[in-house]
Amino acid sequence: MEIYCFLHLNYTSNLINLSRIADAEENLGESEVREAHLAKSLFYVRIGDKAGSLSTYISEKALEQLKVTESKTVAVGQKMDLVFYTLQMGLFDLDFDLISKSIDKAKKLFEEGGDWERKNRLKVYEGLFCMSTRNFKKAADLFLDSISTFTTYELFPYDTFIFYTVLTSIITLDRVSLKQKVVDAPEILTVIGKIPYLSEFMNSLYECQYKSFFSSFAGLTEHIKLDRYLQPHFRYYMREVRTVVYSQFLESYKSVTIEAMAKAFGVSEDFIDLELSRFIAAGKLHCKIDKVAGVLETNRPDAKNALYQATIKQGDFLLNRIQKLSRVIDL
């Protein structure tokens, strides 16, 4: 039944589109011919998500027709719109190879020209691609650049965009940048209250209200699990957020008791001990546990000393290269 309906729909639409294309080629100009081909392309793009097992065939037909339409297109802006249609298909199917190639193609088109509105739209597409491929740092930067110019409603509503922006920013920005770009951002403040638990999640982290942070995070996890782009990275995001909050807590202390930390987070001492031991072993937290005394001792790395050691190492490598080169020249 599904195949019959598809074939009937495909046959009928093709007759309409072919007659429109033929009429445009015989009686109208180049712009009308392009519009007729574009209409056929958009038809395939629209039905791609309703074809079930035939979606691969439809996607191929859509991409093929978009290429035909592109060959009839001269203006850079119109070519960009065709790239956006391709990106929508790639994001729907999570075809990361197609998305990556389309983004590169769009950037090359911008070198030929292009308006700011389309450039800002591309930032959201690229940010969503980065988030879907676990590049949260770049995704946060692109989303933050697009907050005041967001027009990409064909992907998701503004509420969802703010949801992605806050989540990616929390695990990638330092405390000062988070305050400036997210916590105090008027565009975010006007919307964040509409998303359950998100405001409490963000503010409790910044204000060091760790009990509230954990309770709001528990409520937010269901929203993350239901999101098609974040769900594959759910466990990874959970670990990164906990790394951020534990690091923020420990940054204030040279040493602190496990009991005090467990009380601050509203969990048991055994839970904190198990959690921190995993993060310490993975190199995520710079501290050590004195289980006998029940104390956590922080041992933050010295950034300046590390930079000095790296400089010395690179200098030794350069001197060795110069010595080898001098021997070759002497010969």
From TrEMBL:
Keywords: Proteasome. InterPro entries: PCI_dom, Rpn7/CSN1, Rpn7_N, RPN7_PSMD6_C, WH_DNA-bd_sf. SUPFAM superfamilies: Winged helix' DNA-binding domain. Pfam families: PCI, RPN7, RPN7_PSMD6_C. This is 26S proteasome regulatory subunit RPN7. Signal peptide: none annotated. Acts as a regulatory subunit of the 26S proteasome which is involved in the ATP-dependent degradation of ubiquitinated proteins. GO terms for cellular component: proteasome complex. PROSITE patterns: PCI. Residues 135-303 form the PCI domain.
